[in-house]
Amino acid sequence: MSPKIDSLELAHLHFIPKPHKPDTPLRPIVAAIHAPATEISKFLNDLLAPIFLRVARQTTFINGIDLVRALEKYAANGHLKPTTLFITFDVENLYTMIPRQGALEVLLQFLERNLRNNKIGTLRIDDIMRMARLVLDTNIFVYEKTHYRQIRGGAMGSAFTQTLANIYMLDWEQQLIHDQQVDQKIYGRYIDDVFMTTNLTHDQLKAKLENAHRKDPNIRISYSIQSTIDFVDVTVSNEGDHLKTSIFHKSAAEPYVLPYTSDHPRHVF
């Protein structure tokens, strides 16, 4: 995990437009392939992501097919009614909005609950927490010849950021998961996008989602309630208790291939 001194490079900030959203907002990306803490960030991601997935697999969608299979099972068990609605909500700016100290506290609780003997191999929880703090403390980058240090959230482009955000969200969503399971309804999340089913009225749903919205000032959600809805790469419809699915392409999707030498993480290719 030691950085290669002769190839170290300070991270730099650039932006990717999101043309499928109103006013074309920009997504900030910190390109940190050769930054000092990059290898530690990758190590933490490789170490903790499998544990998160094991713990949260029942409420985590890996892709659109995951959702389709869950809905097919849901319908086969007789839970899909003519009144069933689909809800999706998006967590706004998840990676950059999670609070540093709050995320570390949630990470510590997650590790204490889910590690046998408070260790992963020979690594103690304290060792993992020290590395996590190091990654967050060294989110330093250059933008237009000025140096900045990110003090909130994780860097978009750091491998550990997604895992930390997932663990933080897992803590935030526990009440929603519980309510959905009690009602035998679907709850699943793909990073910052959540899908749910319900037979509640629109007013009841809005009250429930507004309560979730107020739970944590760092988590802002925007939601949609429909009988036909897009989620990840599928469109799902409830047509009189009959499930219909089709492939969904975002309007911004283009059939381009990323150059291998780009700053994208290797798992993208």
Automatic annotation (TrEMBL):
Species, as recorded = Rotaria sordida
PROSITE patterns in UniProt: RT_POL
Name of the protein? Reverse transcriptase domain-containing protein
Q: Where is the Reverse transcriptase domain?
A: 1-247
Q: Which InterPro entries match?
A: RT_dom (IPR000477)
